[in-house]
Amino acid sequence: MKIKNKKLKIILIVSLLIIALVILMNFFYKKANKNLNIGNNLSKKTNQEIEEYILNISSYEADIEVEIESNKNTTRYKIKQSYVSPNIEKQTVEEPSNIKGLQTIYDGSKLTITNTKLNLSTVYENYPYITDNYLWLNSFIEDYKTSEKRKLYEEGNQLIMEVNLEANNPYVSSKKLFINKEESKITKLVVQDKNQKNIVYILYNEIKINSLKKEEVLAFKLKEISAKQY
């Protein structure tokens, strides 16, 4: 009888452990799945949820290709960008080769322009923060938030957020941000004139959203300061 009771206790304990393990696994699975959906996964969101998600981006880092059109020629760049709300920005040129390594950083008050090849820097103290920069996603977001002339629509598998700027700028008619819903990815940002000609075309080869902190963007400055002290 004692042996039988002992076996029942063992079976009960094992059963409880299995149930507890299943509950824990289910909890962590749901939590991981929730985090995945909150992150850069836009495929299961409605158009309005995607719009809200974009407008609430607090930081991003991106590898972009840029084409800037003028009356005379087209200039192409490859650039790395980092941004942390409200006004921390870092940009490094990778191409063309003649300005490779040119780096601009705004830390909230100072603008630093560095030529990493020549190890030369210029610092502008108390530099006013300028949001009207067509190369930055956060500039588009600010324009979209503050404009009454904006719209959200679909073309194929692309969701497009468009803002009209003609009232504020005679040379720029609109900005359009394209989001591929199937790939869950911001794909491009286009700035057009009143004739719907592209002035700036930005292709996002890679973008990571809400993964940066201010300290990470400005980390290189701390290293430079430490190096100069020794």
Comma- or semicolon-separated keywords:
230 residues; alpha+beta; 5 helices; 11 strands; 37% strand; disordered C terminus
Describe what you observe in this structure:
The chain has 230 residues and is an alpha+beta fold. Helices cover 31% and strands 37% of the residues. It is built from 5 helices and 11 strands, in the order ααββββββαβββββαα. The chain has helices at 2-38, 47-55, 137-146, 214-217, 219-229; strands at residues 59-69, 74-84, 88-95, 102-106, 111-115, 120-124, 150-155, 158-164, 174-180, 185-192, 198-209. An 11-stranded antiparallel sheet has the order 6-5-4-3-2-1-11-10-9-8-7, covered by helices on one side. A hairpin with a 3-residue loop joins strand 2 (74-84) and strand 3 (88-95). The radius of gyration is 25 Å and the shape is globular. Residues 31-39 and 220-230 have low confidence and may be disordered.
Average pLDDT works out at 82
Strand order of the largest sheet: 6-5-4-3-2-1-11-10-9-8-7
Proportion in β-strands = 35-45%
Globally, the shape reads globular
Structural class estimated from helices and strands: alpha+beta
The count of helical stretches stands at 5
User: Count of DSSP E strands?
Assistant: 11
| Major β-sheet profile | 11 strands, antiparallel
Share of helix, binned: 25-40%
Give a quick summary of the entry.
The chain has five helices and eleven strands.
What's the SSE blueprint?
Blueprint: H1 2-38, H2 47-55, E1 59-69, E2 74-84, E3 88-95, E4 102-106, E5 111-115, E6 120-124, H3 137-146, E7 150-155, E8 158-164, E9 174-180, E10 185-192, E11 198-209, H4 214-217, H5 219-229
Antiparallel strand pairs: 1-2, 1-11, 2-3, 3-4, 4-5, 5-6, 7-8, 8-9, 9-10, 10-11
